[in-house]
Design a protein that fits this description.
This protein has 147 residues and is an all-alpha fold. The chain has a domain at 61-143. 79% of the residues lie in helices and 0% in strands. It is built from seven helices and no strands. Helix 4 (51-85) packs across helix 6. It is rod-shaped. It starts with a helix and ends with a helix.
């Protein structure tokens, strides 16, 4: 059997040619050759189906959710500081929450330098100052127990 006659058989039988093509592509994929035809085909279909665009939209949505969460944390920090300025006595749990918020907010702003983060600087400094003063006076039992 010659190469020409094999080619005619393959050309006349599309099922056989498909099986041969899949087998060859699988062998190339499995072999140590750095060619990955299935990956390339997957990328082509992914672009055709819009998966790349969907992935980009999901990334943008995740970024927006993170920014909204950071903004919400910032609002809680500012609200807590406003209450301190008004002379309110926060509970121990409120102190714990705001200190956690401050830490998370500072971590977010450090890892996202384009995020507008200078809004809470004075408030955060005041909250931390008040917290350390409470610790120095050991006022947790007297001042915080009133809540």
């Amino acid at each position: 059997m010659t190469l020409n006659s094999i080619w005619k058989i393959i050309a006349e039988n599309p099922k056989i040619s498909t099986i041969i093509l899949i087998t060859l592509l699988s062998l190339v994929e499995v072999s140590k050759i750095k060619i990955n035809p299935w990956t390339a085909i997957g990328k082509i279909f992914g672009k055709f189906l819009g998966i790349t665009a969907l992935s980009n939209k999901l990334d943008a949505l995740e970024k927006k959710v993170d920014e909204n969460q950071a903004t919400t944390i910032r609002v809680r920090i500012l609200h807590f500081e406003d209450e301190l300025q008004l002379g309110k006595q926060p509970s121990k749990d409120s102190w714990d929450q705001v200190l956690d918020d401050i830490q998370r907010y500072e971590e977010y702003t450090q890892s996202h330098p384009k995020f507008k983060n200078n809004i809470t600087s004075a408030s955060t400094a005041h909250i931390k100052k008040e917290y350390f003063e409470l610790l120095e006076r050991r006022a947790w039992t007297t001042k915080l127990s009133k809540e």
